[in-house]
Amino acid sequence: MKKPLLLLLLSVVLVSSAAGAPPRAAAPAPYAGQCGIPATQPVWFEFGQPYLQPIFGKPGVVVGTSTGDWPAQMRALGAGTVYFDLNLRNRVGTPTTPTATATMPDRAQKLFTFAVQQTGCATPVIVFNELSGPGLVTPWSDTNTQYRANVLALIQDIAALGAHPVLLIPAPAYTGGDALAWWQQVSAAAEIVREAYVPATVTWKQGPILGNRNLRNTYRAAVTNLTSIGIPPNKVGLMVSFATTNGYGGRNGLEPASAWFQVAKWQSLALQQVSQETAIASVWSWGWGRYTAAELDPEKGHAACVWMWTRSPSLCDAPAQLGPGFNTSLTEGQLSLLSAGAQCLIGRRVLSNAAIAQLQRLTGDRETAYSALFERLIESDQSPVPTSAVLAAERGVILQSFGGSRAAYVNALGQANASVAVARGVLGDQLRRAQVQATLPARAPTAAEIQTFYESYPDLPVRLVKSTPQPSWLGSKAQGFAISQVAPDRIFTLRRDQAAVLLTSEGSFRIKPLDDALPLGAVPLRTVTPAIAAALRGFERGEAFENWTVAKQRYVLNTTICARDDLPQPGAVDLTSYLPFLRLG
User: Fold this and answer.
1) Cα 565 from Cα 212, distance rounded (Å)
2) How many whole angstroms separate alpha carbon 435 and alpha carbon 440?
3) Residues linked to residue 467 through DSSP beta bridges, in sequence order
4) Which of 111, 108, 106, 43 lies closest to 83 in space, CA to CA?
5) Which segments of 240-365 does DSSP mark as H helices, in order?
6) What pTM was estimated for this model as a whole?
7) Which domains are seen in the chain, by residue range?
8) DSSP string, 157-187
9) Phi, psi (degrees; rounded to nearest 5) at 164
10) Helices marked H in 383-457 — which ranges?
11) Which of 220, 286, 289, 416 is most buried, judged by most C-beta within 10 A?
């Protein structure tokens, strides 16, 4: 948080939980329940000035002050008080010019005495704005080592006197090397609040789904930066910006003002969600002050009203203040839209955790199952497969691979931890892929590419066959060489002149081998050129399909809501690798 030249500062604390979500059991901040601060999690702090007193000056909030008569005034309105210190730099110096460490005890005593007087609390919360260079890597310079020692000593001395120190940091903490111990020592005595400022212009441009997702992920990452090194969540907080100077997060020039109000609402909702997930101690806002010309934004009061209203309508009546043009939705783009048991909401369709768990029994890996089901949902919109086609494919598999025994088929599925429903999904995937690939362009391979293939795979089995109708792997011809790994495997197990109907993802074909299988290199290149060309076009269509489906999935993810923003990885998942007897060829 940047340090304005002010003689007074107003902060407000209000406790709230995410709208419509059950409260999460968590340890509150150590100061919760003391001196008018509610014993709940999280605690909300708001920066402000006198013009916001009608919003902040009421019971149920806690006001933070620096100097002046604000503490008494706000307590008279029913609020509690905490102390916000803007002079950390003057007390401990900077990373290049630190003050003498020996002076910290005396400085701590004077600050503590003043904070007690200002707050009317014997164990005040004292907020320090702000640590310089939290991301400096070790080994530190001698001057930065002394600066960090000063900060730690001041915080420990303040805590020993009975206060609750809160240290603001403006960037991610570097926690490697010797820095790890320093952060852990600080957190033992103080709460660490990470400033996470996302410009409203960025959030608004992304829209309600991506914008909210980005806010939540930004806040989660800020919390994880600290909790990943063992700092307990009730010693961690988040601060967001409502400044109107460009480059400081906040409004950042966003127009119209109504867009900023929506972002203010989204920030509150995102913080409610993340604070509930992570059980952090507090949430803070900054930027309501009007201390420079750039900050004299007449819309700040409205934004503050929206910010407070989003947590609790009793704090400020934003709909009445802003009129019918204000979007009052508290669910748009929010995880609260997810029903119980849902992992993702894709348009109006739900991808359930139960479905993922069912497929995971087959894949052994949740992420693979998750991606496969997401892919299926997206492709189904683009190229639906009728149930009759899936059932026909199932009958064909039972006939060709299990001698017509459905019992054997079901038993094989059970051995693979799959159900009939799972198998039908896999069959549908193959039929759908074939439908889509048939529509994708594939250029004619060059003579050099055909020559390279021929020389690279001389031992690949090929077989001269006749087919009705004409499949793509014969170059859409009635007769030609079928190439192994491209044509159905069963072609190479049939006896010579044994006609058979083969079910493939392209459909059913009556195949009659005209000769025994030969190595590709034993057949003149000119003779097998059509087959090689068909194979290369098939490979290209396969690659085109993967690009096509990944692009579709990525596009849809922009409008998909998933629990905890845990998104599937876009890809082309081939589930027949787990159930090879379902492969249609």
Assistant:
1) 10
2) 9
3) 511
4) 111
5) 257-278, 300-311, 318-322, 353-363
6) 0.88
7) 10-327 (3.20.20), 337-441+549-582 (no CATH), 454-546 (no CATH)
8) HHHHTT-EEEEEESSPPP-STTHHHHHHHHH
9) -115, 95
10) 387-402, 406-415, 420-439, 447-456
11) 286
